[in-house]
Specification:
Elements (H helix, E strand, L loop, with lengths): L1 H27 L4 H6 L5 H11 L5 H13 L13 H36 L4 H14 L3 H15 L15 H35 L2 H8 L4 H38 L5 H10 L3 H29 L7
Helix pairs in contact: 1-12, 5-8, 5-10, 5-12, 6-8, 7-8, 8-10, 10-11, 10-12, 11-12
Amino acid sequence: MKYFGKKLAAMLITVLVVSFLVFAAFSIIPGDPVTSMLGTEATPEQVQALREELGLNDPLLVRYVRWLADFAGGDMGTSYNYKMPVTKMVAEKIPVTLSLAAMSFVILVAVSVPLGIFCAKRAGGWLDRTVMILNQVIMAVPSFFSGIVITLVFGLILKLFVPGGYVSYQKNFWGFLGYLIYPAVAIALPKIAMAVKLLRSSVTEQMKLDYVRTAYSRGNRTKGVLYGHVLKNALIPVVTFLGMTLADMVAGSIIVEQVFNVPGIGRILLTSISNRDYPVVMVIIVCVSFLVILINFLVDLLYKKIDPRITLD
């Protein structure tokens, strides 16, 4: 219980620090939301009146504390640009981004774990070398470029999907999932290459240790040693990587959403940043930060499940 309390406190403090830094950053960088709202033709009187109405003339700490109090009370503010509650905007878009990140992660695990074990069992063979060469190539290609290639090959040439033909989950759930497969693959590809290389290296290193020779001396077969002993230890660094990757997929899907015209939080985040729409940017960043911290917390708990010898302090 003490561990949970410490982690919960750390999560809250981290979210507070991140939210304040973002709030402060938007107060320092050039640009004015009032100018974006009124346009360059607005008179100084109009600009000052709107700044006063929005509370932008108050000191930074006063504005931050007011925002924090409203956020804690469930009031996430109103978008300057869209003129609608931020809560409604995020509630409509975040399921799309989370679904895309979740599908990318499922593809990552489903492909990388079996392939990493396969390569480790055949380390040094021609199949292993071939996969490792492909891994190097795939790791060098960013997700957005993979998305462009996938759109070209599977969308325009093979016509397996309609580029830009996004289907809302509210209208057709299965059509929605079908469309997300392609951006999910684009996001997952470089992560799969990294995970395969990491798992292969981890398994081959574990296979050289004394406890493996002891297991073989007791009459265990290779399959039993691999799955009964080696894999548990080899998975610990991989779980760390997968946890960081899942968090990265939530945040990193923003660019790929633009390639495939997926209306997740990425689109409104980029628009809101360019328009200095602070209420929207703040809520999205706080939500993403909380998800990243929560995922890391769950990874810590998973360590204990994989290896009971690990102590959580």
